[in-house]
Amino acid sequence: MNHGVNPDTSSRSVAKLLVKGILSVISLVILVSATLVVPLRWINPPTSSYMIQQKYSLQNSSGEAIPIRHKWVDWDQISDYAKVAAITSEDQRFPEHNGFDFEAIKKAWQESQRGDDLRGASTITQQVAKNLYLWQGRSYLRKGIEAYFTGLIELFWSKKRILEIYLNIAEFGPGIFGVEAAARTYFNSSAADLNMPESALLMTALPSPKRYDLHNPSPYMIERRNWILRYMHLLGNTVYLDRLDNG
Question: I need a surface site. Which of 17, 68, 202, 207 has the fewest CB within 10 A?
């Protein structure tokens, strides 16, 4: 009589343990990531991953650390012009998409195939996911995690909440984070009192805030500001915000 272990039974046991282990890891990842995302629907993040990284790496020409300037302001304390300017500049289909603008991605790819410089096609939600939770740099791993957090953010936050957090953590200059700190630094104003031209000019720094100096706007920045102003009108200006949900 053969009392040995049946190889098929042993293989099935190992496979079951492996599947169970994988499912446990996936469940843990989902739980941890949801814990990082869901509460921020109501709780204001005091900082961001990118701010923390910059706190320990920003230096001036003399090698001295550049302090981080940041102050949170709620939705109602931000000029509607700044909200529309951000959408106009960064993500004009923001109210419609689910976190990914596939039309913009397709267009960027087609332009790169023609030999043009590869431009970014990240939505406001993707930028929030990257700056709030992740590290900088280009890699498939980071983009994959960014896509995952983008989906979670779109699932659990309203569009207004996404834009509110975006405007509070976006970098407008070396060490200058959020629309309130930017308004104080560049216009001696508050985020609530930003007018339309000021709001449009602020957004010209967003693609590369360490390169574009809002204290001394370049001809390109002035041209870009005028483009944003023109398209703000075409989108309906502050009326455009009615397209955002009320959550």
Answer: 17
CB 146 within 8 A of CB 33: no
CATH no. of 44-60+68-243: 1.10.3810.10
Residue 27 CB-half CA count within 13 A: 6
Scanning the structure block, which residue is given the tokens 């896509």?
147
Long-range CB contacts for residues 137-144, cutoff 8 Å, separation at least 24? none
For tokens 């960014």, what's the residue? 146
CB 68 within 8 A of CB 175: yes
All structural domains of the chain with their residue ranges:
44-60+68-243
pTM: 0.87
Give the H or E element holding residue 229: helix 219-235
What are 126-167's pLDDT values in tens digits?
Answer: 999 999 999 887 889 999 999 999 999 999 999 999 999 999
CA 221, CA 232: separation in Å to the nearest integer?
A: 16
pLDDT beyond 60 at 175: yes
Farthest CA pair distance, the chain:
91
